[in-house]
Amino acid sequence: MSGFRATVLTLYPEMFPGALGVSLAGRAMQAGSWSLDAVQIRDFATDRHRTVDDTPAGGGAGMVMRADVLARAIDHAAPAGDARPKLLMSPRGKPLTQARVRELADGPGAVILCGRFEGVDQRLIEARQLEEVSIGDYILSGGEPAALVLLDAVVRLLPGVMGNEESGVQESFENGLLEHPHYTRPAEFEGRTIPEILTSGNHARIAAWRHAESERLTAERRPDLLQPVTK
């Protein structure tokens, strides 16, 4: 039995596993470290046209995904007793953070609903206690690309997926800072050399330099990460 179980509810199951079927995630799937099941939402429609959406109450553009159809799909994917969190990929959701990614990686898996059209009936979100998650302040054509991003971030943190476990804790956002610059051979590239301190062999000074560089880059590029958290 795979440790981390992901179930994705989507109108386009052919989009999965996609990029998750190759590289680290793909090898981990083949090794049984995690599993992925893509469920076609239209299978839970009751009319001959397999309708999953309808016009928005109150008028307006677009269509809204129906609560009754989605409820049947979710209840099929996560019956009573399934402890996995139920996520809805949504631009109005709480921004995905590395801390939340680690929480998911430490859990049993996730049930992920990929929205389409104008969105999902609010009653479904409330009735099934969906956690709305956003991967950024922009709009996608659907939740599928966002689900792929979320799963990629989670799967790489599962035990044994990365060859060097230390890689997962020395990265951007793990300690609230952006990651420091990296260098490797050749020693000189187009007139640019590796900072001398990195070849000094003094590990304490190297660690201090890397931390200082992380702080500098964070202040320049993501000063919001340095702001104190307010409740």
Automatic annotation (TrEMBL):
Keywords: Cytoplasm, Methyltransferase, S-adenosyl-L-methionine, Transferase, tRNA processing. The keyword S-adenosyl-L-methionine applies. It catalyses: guanosine(37) in tRNA + S-adenosyl-L-methionine = N(1)-methylguanosine(37) in tRNA + S-adenosyl-L-homocysteine + H(+). InterPro entries: Alpha/beta_knot_MTases, tRNA_m1G_MeTrfase_C_sf, tRNA_m1G_MeTrfase_TrmD, tRNA_m1G_MTases_N, tRNA_MeTrfase_TRMD/TRM10. Its EC number is 2.1.1.228. Homodimer. HAMAP family: TrmD (MF_00605). Specifically methylates guanosine-37 in various tRNAs. This is tRNA (guanine-N(1)-)-methyltransferase. It comes from Mesorhizobium denitrificans. The gene is trmD.
